[in-house]
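Dig into these lines:

——
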Amino acid sequence: MRKRNRNNLEHLCQAFLLLETEVEVYNFLKDLCTPSELEALSERWNICKHLHKGLSYREIHEKTGSSLTTIGKVARFLKNEPYQGYTTMLKKLKKSSGE
């Protein structure tokens, strides 16, 4: 990643850290992303949660309508996460729900 893009990404991450409520996050995402980008992000997160529950690619496809290619891409990142983003968030959600 080029230095300018890395700085932009770092500033975006800092902006996310300042958000305090679900409404603030929602409004920021709605301003920041196109409807297609939001749909893609939401779809990937939904697939991640289904994979974490142990559903098969076919079951996820039937439940969500997501392509097997997209499911496979999310699965690869979930299994071989270089940044542990999905796993970190899944753990935080589990902890916040008291499971």
